Amino acid sequence: MDLSRYHILVVGDDSRSALAIVRSLWYAGARISLASESKESIVRTSRAVRRVFDLPSSAASISSWSHALKEVIRQNEFDAIIPANETAWLGLMRLKQ
């Protein structure tokens, strides 16, 4: 499957799942961006990730986290957005409402 024309945003930084997601999509040719709240995430340094967007802590304020993610999405053109953990999924559902 050739995903070379797609720009995909992976949201969340659960190391194992996010790293598996970005690598799989990258191997298929997609351009990958990551929205992450953890500065220590190993996913941030993966060669599969072209750009990293910093998000505030969702534990401190899910509202601030959602607002920051909404701005990332608004200012960029993504073909798909994929949550890498439950926090990301819940935050994306919050934006949908």
Could you explain the architecture of this structure?
The structure is a single chain. With 97 residues, this protein is α/β, with parallel strands linked by helices. 39% of the residues lie in helices and 22% in strands. It has three helices and four strands. It has helices at residues 15-27, 62-75, 86-96; strands spanning 7-11, 31-36, 49-54, 80-83. A four-stranded parallel beta sheet has the order 3-2-1-4. α1 links the parallel β1 (7-11) and β2 (31-36).
Strand share of the residues?
Answer: 15-25%
What is the end-to-end distance? 33 Å
Oligomer: single chain
Radius of gyration: 12 Å
Query: Based on helices, strands and strand pairing, what is the structural class?
Result: alpha/beta
Strand order of the largest sheet: 3-2-1-4
Shape by Cα distribution: globular
Give, in order, the helices and strands.
EHEEHEH
Number of helices: 3
Q: Tell me how many strands there are.
A: 4
Average predicted confidence as pLDDT? 91
- Please bin the fraction of helical residues: 25-40%
Q: What's the main sheet like?
A: 4 strands, parallel
